[in-house]
Design brief:
Largest sheet: none
Radius of gyration: 21 Å
Order of helices and strands: HHHHHHHHHHHHHHHH
Number of helices: 16
């Protein structure tokens, strides 16, 4: 297949039809990943009723995917660099298709949990592969920025729309929540074969595999994610042992990488301050959002008695970023730069969470709307530019690795945010007659995380201004 030639960023910003076609396919894949996560969340009660799962087993329906996704992301991103981005994207998209369909046919809880774990692994490879296809297919500059902002807007829009789609499908049959991503994956796979070009330099010339390093970091991340995911459900001792084992394996990984002739993670890449700041801000931003979403969903469903579809529609305004990210954000980035736009987005996120503090048991939705719409704007301003900063200046041979690092940060941040919010809610609502007060206290988690993310980004802005 011939290589697609993209015009240089010095010319018009308009993309060629072939470039739009490729971007459309990759956006379809990240949209698929977004709706896949969101739809299953609202289908959990129906899954429990049909398969007779306990609360612990039900948690594993989500945790299994998180473990596979977060644990294998770094190795998956590097695999795209070593064995070909297009190949890894297509192969693991096909795996995702098959296991999603198998999950929809599950008759036992363990079958669904196993399918979700493999689906997470598949997403851990195809997601950074898709991102690296964009960052290597478009030259660094305005065109790549435009493509990345469209891509990130689609990702967040997929999550927002997935909440509504999940509510609709689960009300008919929860199995549709798994069959629908399988059908969409098939459509994307058929379109991807002709639209994603096979480039001449798709694979690294040095394809030695750092097996020990990959095993160590994958096990380390899985243990760390497992520790924070189950922190609210097991004893503090078990959590401490799991997390300590994760850090021990992470330390082993660093030792292995320093001695490896072909490391999975070239430690020198972490000397890039913008990359490190983007990953840290992304981790905190993700933790804040998923913590808030968990608190808001519990508030609406358990305290207000809203149904899953009603709750999904209430949070639909967050999906405004799907429109704003590819339209407004590029103009702001071109005028003010990535760092200022990121900081503005993070400050808006802080404001949105603070505005939710006065919400009571009889508050009308109109009073909640400012939080939802401001959070959508915050996503539009922060998410895409963070992706740009995390991949700018990275050598083409390590773009998959850079994408894997960023998505690992997002995923680990989500696990931390959920665990911390859950722990605060459990601690403040158990045996109390004022559960609303506990939910308000738990809002300190997303507020604090968003404030820290803003401080990290502000430090980067100050560094830029002193150059």
């Amino acid at each position: 297949m011939s290589t697609v030639q993209f015009p240089s960023p010095s010319s018009s910003l308009r993309l060629t039809p072939r470039a739009w076609g490729m971007l459309f396919v990759l956006c379809g894949a990240i949209f698929l990943e977004g709706i896949n996560v969101a739809m299953l969340n609202v289908a959990l009660p129906a899954i429990r009723a049909d398969l007779g799962l306990s609360t612990g087993e039900l948690q594993w329906v989500i945790s299994a995917y998180v473990l596979g996704y977060g644990g294998f992301m770094l190795a998956g991103g590097r695999a795209a660099d070593l064995f070909g981005r297009r190949r890894m994207f297509l192969v693991w998209l096909a795996v995702f298709l098959v296991v999603s369909a198998l999950g929809g046919m599950a008759t036992e809880g363990w079958m669904l949990i196993a399918a979700r774990f493999v689906a997470g692994v598949a997403a851990a490879v195809m997601t950074p592969a898709g991102l690296s296809i964009i960052t290597t297919g478009f030259e660094e500059g305005p065109r790549r920025n435009q493509a990345l902002l469209v891509y990130s807007g689609t990702a967040a829009g997929g999550f927002s729309l997935g909440l509504v789609l999940g509510g609709l499908l689960a009300s008919v049959n929860w199995r549709l929540v798994l069959f629908t991503p399988a059908v969409l994956a098939l459509v994307i796979l058929v379109a991807a074969v002709p639209l994603i070009p096979a480039t001449r330099e798709e694979r690294s010339r040095d394809r030695r595999v750092d097996v020990l390093g990959a095993a160590a970091i994958t096990a380390a991340i899985m243990l760390l994610v497992l520790g924070v995911e189950r922190a609210a459900h097991v004893s503090a001792g078990q959590t401490a042992v799991t997390v300590a084992a994760g850090f021990a394996l992470a330390a082993l990984f660093v030792v292995v990488e320093r001695r490896s002739a072909a490391p999975l993670l070239r430690l020198g890449i972490l000397r890039s301050r913008p990359l490190v700041r983007a990953n840290l801000a992304g981790l905190l931003f993700s933790g804040a959002f998923f913590g808030f979403q968990f608190i808001a969903v519990l508030y609406l469903q358990e305290l207000r008695g809203w149904g899953s579809l009603q709750t999904s529609l209430a949070m639909l305004a967050i999906g405004a970023d799907a429109v704003l990210a590819p339209t407004l954000t590029p103009r702001l980035v071109n005028r003010f730069g990535n760092s200022r736009v990121i900081l503005a987005g993070l400050l808006l996120a802080v404001l949105s969470y603070v505005l939710f503090l006065p919400i009571g048991l009889d508050t009308v939705y109109l009073a909640m709307f400012p939080t939802m719409i401001l959070l959508g704007v915050a996503f539009a301003l922060a998410y895409g530019p963070l992706t740009i900063v995390a991949t700018d200046g990275v050598d083409e041979s390590e773009q998959g690795l850079a994408g894997g690092l960023l998505y690992t940060s997002f995923q680990f941040g989500a696990a931390l945010g959920l665990a911390a919010s859950t722990a605060v809610i459990v601690a403040t609502t158990t045996g109390t007659a004022d559960p609303l007060g506990g939910y308000r206290t738990a809002l300190a988690v997303p507020i604090a995380a968003a404030v820290l993310a803003a401080l990290v980004s502000a430090f980067g802005l100050r560094k830029e201004n002193t150059r």
